[in-house]
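Need residues for this backbone.
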């Protein structure tokens, strides 16, 4: 960075989805922008995600005969959050989700066939390839003359004036501190803190030993930068794990550093879940957050998704949670001609597995799950199906902390609020670093949706210098 590049209208900290959307939106408002990413490559947790965004009332839904509405989406977001989400943020999400969907497409993001996922009563998952998503936006960033992008550049602290207004940030360039002035505002889009053991111990000690995924740069930098200035934190008590993290080396049930993140969800296509005793332990249609907590209570914290060929036939490459064929090709999913052979592969009791599947199939025939009350594929959508068509498949998995879904308290202009509920002047935030939308529950796709929608708003508001 040369001397004349030290002054910008807007500085964005973090080069994931929220950061890219903020930078582009600020530039579209006429601001000069610096986008700093502390890792060598852009993308953060976004490129490791399934690439799903939750939208309602789109042409992609109508193309497959799904009737949906923004009002329905708002109602479900509040319900899933246990009524604890900020209703103003929920309404903001809903009001801007349609134009954000169009905006992303206009910026080169490719969407695929809509599908059903966790906590949805209708299919709302608008899948992308997460790498293509970031590549498309990053290409726009690099092609925008008013945006300066710089990798390998961590932010060290926020700079303030005598009135405690944020006027920029201090970054590290080649290990040396450099002060960068933001004349209108700073946007924090630095992600969560799954990779910070101290913060996890402070806010979610029950998950300290659970596998922690997410971007390697997700160490809570932006959270602590704002916290130092008196920022309020919300939803910290709602951190939880996600069910469906594939065990790559089963029967070794450990998740080791360097293991590929594979989140696969055959359950919302009709699979059942059994523990190491070959017994079902939950209603498989419920949220993968709730299932994650229940899974950790099973022996070794391990579960196995059991399904048959008709469910495998629904495999799709995008979103990646539906890529069952890909997991089979990598040897994570096991295949057998009979349930007895499948049990042997998974080191399960064969007679018990056969009995469990037969009992479940009888429930499907009777239209009544006497054990756990399953009535749908997921979220009330679709009917349970029998597992009866060979070959059969098994997906060993566990619970992992993929994201923290909590953090800085913001208002509807994405201004960071202090502990007294007042905005910290010229400081904005978006993406995983903020709380307020998910609270006690989470709809699949709302995290990336939030990053894109609120990232755009944060960038535009920062460009106005309010």
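Answer:
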């Amino acid at each position: 960075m040369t001397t004349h590049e030290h002054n910008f209208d807007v500085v964005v900290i973090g080069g994931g989805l929220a950061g890219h959307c903020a930078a582009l939106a600020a530039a579209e408002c006429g601001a000069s922008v610096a986008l700093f990413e502390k890792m060598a490559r852009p993308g953060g947790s976004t490129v490791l995600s399934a690439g799903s965004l939750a939208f309602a009332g789109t042409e992609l839904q109508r193309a497959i005969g799904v009737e949906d509405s923004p009002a329905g989406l708002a109602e479900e977001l509040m319900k899933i959050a246990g009524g604890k989400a900020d209703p103003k943020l929920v309404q903001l999400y809903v009001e801007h989700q349609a134009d954000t969907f169009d905006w992303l497409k206009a910026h080169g993001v490719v969407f695929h066939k809509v599908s059903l996922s966790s906590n949805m009563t209708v299919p709302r998952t608008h899948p992308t390839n997460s790498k293509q998503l970031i590549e498309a936006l990053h290409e726009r960033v690099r092609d925008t003359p008013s945006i300066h992008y710089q990798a390998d550049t961590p932010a060290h602290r926020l700079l303030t004036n005598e009135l405690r207004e944020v006027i920029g940030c201090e970054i590290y360039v080649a290990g040396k501190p450099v002060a960068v002035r933001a004349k209108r505002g700073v946007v924090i889009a630095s992600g969560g803190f799954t990779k910070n053991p101290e913060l996890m111990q402070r806010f979610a000690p029950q998950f300290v030993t659970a596998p922690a995924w997410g971007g390697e740069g997700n160490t809570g930098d932006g959270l602590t930068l704002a916290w130092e200035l008196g920022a309020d934190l919300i939803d910290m008590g709602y951190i939880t794990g996600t069910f469906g993290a594939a065990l790559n080396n089963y029967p070794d049930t450990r998740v080791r550093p360097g293991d590929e993140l594979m989140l696969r969800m055959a359950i919302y296509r009709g699979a059942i879940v059994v523990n190491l005793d070959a017994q079902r332990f939950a209603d498989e249609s419920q949220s993968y957050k709730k299932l994650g907590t229940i899974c950790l209570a099973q022996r070794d914290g391990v579960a196995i998704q059991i399904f048959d060929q008709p469910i495998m036939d629904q495999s799709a490459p995008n979103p990646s949670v539906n890529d069952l064929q890909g997991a089979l090709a990598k040897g994570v999913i096991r295949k057998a001609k009979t349930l007895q052979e499948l049990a042997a592969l998974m080191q399960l009791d064969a007679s018990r597995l056969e009995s469990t599947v037969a009992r479940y199939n009888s429930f499907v025939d009777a239209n009544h799950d006497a054990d756990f009350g399953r009535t749908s594929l997921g979220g009330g959508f679709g009917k349970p199906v029998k597992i009866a068509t060979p070959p059969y498949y098994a997906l060993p998995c566990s619970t992992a902390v993929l994201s923290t879904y909590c953090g800085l308290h913001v208002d509807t202009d994405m201004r960071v609020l202090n502990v007294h509920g007042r905005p910290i002047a010229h400081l904005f935030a978006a993406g995983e670093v903020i709380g307020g939308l998910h609270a006690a529950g989470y709809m699949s796709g709302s995290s990336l949706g939030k990053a894109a929608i609120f990232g755009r708003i944060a960038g535009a508001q920062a460009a106005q210098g309010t």
